[in-house]
Amino acid sequence: MALSRLDSLYMAVVSDHSKSPHHHGVIEGVEALQLNNPTCGDVIALSVKFDGDVIEDIAFAGNGCTISTASSSMMTDAVIGKTTAEALELAEIFSEMVQGKEDDAQERLGEAELMAGVSKFPQRVKCATLAWNALKKSIERHEQLGQ
Q1: Cross-strand pairs, 49
Q2: Could you give the 3-state DSSP secondary structure of residue 105?
Q3: What are the residue boundaries of the NIF system FeS cluster assembly NifU N-terminal domain, all occurrences included (predicted)?
Q4: What's the whole-number average pLDDT of the chain?
Q5: Tell me, what's the pLDDT at 13?
Q6: Which of 74, 75, 94, 124 is most buried, judged by most C-beta within 10 A?
Q7: Are 108 and 86 in contact (CB under 8 A)?
């Protein structure tokens, strides 16, 4: 079975983000929030630096499968410079997309829109959403602390 051009593009972009993830590391002076996916062993430590309600900087570290790492990299690209409200909206769009719900708003995800194919593999949805869930919890913690 031959791969479609979109499938080939998906594989190339996911592979690139997994091998050379963007915003990988830690942010000095920022407490990381750690989440794991016990199903496959993915672990992420997400550091988010806020300037009021804007995500000024973001970085992730940890160990994860190709999909988890690529999704984390794409997520950081998509939300840096966004307000917390915008980032939460993108997280919701992403979550719905990888569950198979299509929406024109997916275009706002940038390259993360290519992760839509994960919906064909329900066992991988948790891998794809791990970083996005860590982002939601980081924003929630930020808002609770009133910073």
Answers
A1: 57
A2: helix
A3: 10-127
A4: 91
A5: 84
A6: 75
A7: no
